[in-house]
Design brief:
CATH topology of the largest domain: Hypothetical protein af1432
Structural class: alpha/beta
Radius of gyration: 26 Å
Number of domains: 2
Helix content: 40-55%
Distance between the termini: 43 Å
Bound molecules: fe (ii) ion
Shape: elongated
Number of strands: 5
Length: 335
């Protein structure tokens, strides 16, 4: 892994400039600082290079023939493959219009010619540090998601459960008008909520018969184990309460904390409802898949027993009745 201390930030920098002397100057200076430098002479070549090489930062001359720096920057920032790569525009003018156009094109920073080397180095280093932090976060998230999917994969009957839950809970969250960051948390929780099952032995997890009290005690630990696994990820701050509380019940009879009613985070109450819905509409070793209307009837009975939030359930019923979210199709496909 790349070191992230201030002095030793390295990485691959793509320099695009149509003037050979400018390219040479930048290449010489940046190579001497320990960066790997790739130079190209126009915008189109820069875009091609971004496809074939692992680039960590782009230095773009604004005034290039054919595709200028603004246009290249716009392309980089509009593609999900490259939008996290920092782009620094180098311009001969420091006027307001130029800056405005640069900001519109999505540039992360600007430098004015003649380029001050100290300033260049400081900006490049700070942007790269940010880039590597984002890379690391993305890697950590994808490791977690892979782990969660591999646990799901142990049980052929729960195939696709994580993905459906991510979709269902985001739809219900949107329907309830939750803020965007809560929706993102719900999507993530849909995938990772059961990651704590990694600590449950297969003999218990996949046991076809009835579980003993001791075995249940092991199962009941999975929300807090999952919370601990995901806790180091700062971006999972809003996901942690969902993981911890996805088995609480509205009347306080759930686990691990026996929370009741509104003290259970609303996002956890949302995930529970779609989790139960998915379990009911999917075939399991011990039961057939229920039709949507039978599943809703069963859930209605569970709401009256005091298990699920009645207000959120009634919103979920409206959502299902409208069937604008593909619940019916997804549920049917999962059978
Ligand atoms: Fe669970």
């Amino acid at each position: 892994m790349r070191s992230q201390s201030h002095q030793s930030v390295t990485g691959t920098i793509l320099v695009a400039d149509d003037q050979p002397s400018n390219r040479e100057l930048l290449e010489e200076f940046l190579s001497a600082q320990g960066f790997k430098v790739i130079t190209v002479e126009d915008g189109a070549a820069a875009l091609r290079q971004l496809v074939t090489s692992q680039i960590d930062l782009v230095l773009l001359d604004v005034m290039m023939p054919l595709l200028n720096g603004f246009a290249v920057c716009e392309r980089i920032k509009s593609s999900p493959e490259t939008d996290l790569i920092p782009v620094v525009l180098i311009t001969a003018f420091s006027d307001r219009d130029n800056r405005l156009q640069g900001i519109k094109s999505g540039a992360d920073d600007f430098l004015t010619r003649p380029v001050d080397q100290t300033e260049l180095l400081a900006r490049v280093r700070s942007l790269l540090k940010l880039k590597f932090r984002t890379d690391e976060l993305e890697r950590a998230e994808s490791v977690l998601f892979t782990l969660a999917r591999s646990i799901e994969g142990k049980d052929p009957y729960t195939h696709g459960h994580c993905e459906r839950l991510a979709n269902y809970s985001a739809s219900l969250g949107e329907h309830l008008g939750l803020p965007k960051e809560e929706i993102t948390a719900l999507e993530r929780a849909g995938i990772v909520h059961d990651v704590g099952k990694i600590a449950v032995p297969d003999a218990i997890l996949l046991k076809p018969g009835r579980l003993t009290e001791d075995e249940w005690a092991v199962i009941r630990q999975h929300p807090s184990v999952g919370e601990r696994i995901c806790a180091p990820l700062k971006s999972f701050r809003l996901v942690l309460p969902i993981i911890r509380h996805h088995h609480e019940k509205f009347d306080g009879s759930g686990y691990p904390d026996g929370l009741r009613a509104e003290t259970i985070p609303v996002s956890a109450r949302i995930l529970q409802i779609v989790d139960v819905f998915d379990a009911l509409t999917t075939e399991r070793p011990y039961k057939k898949a229920l039709s949507i209307s039978d599943a809703m009837q069963t859930m209605r009975e569970e709401v009256s027993k005091g298990w699920w939030d009645p207000a959120i359930f009634s919103e979920f019923e409206q959502l299902i009745a409208r069937d604008t979210t593909g619940f019916a199709k997804a549920a049917a496909a999962s059978r």
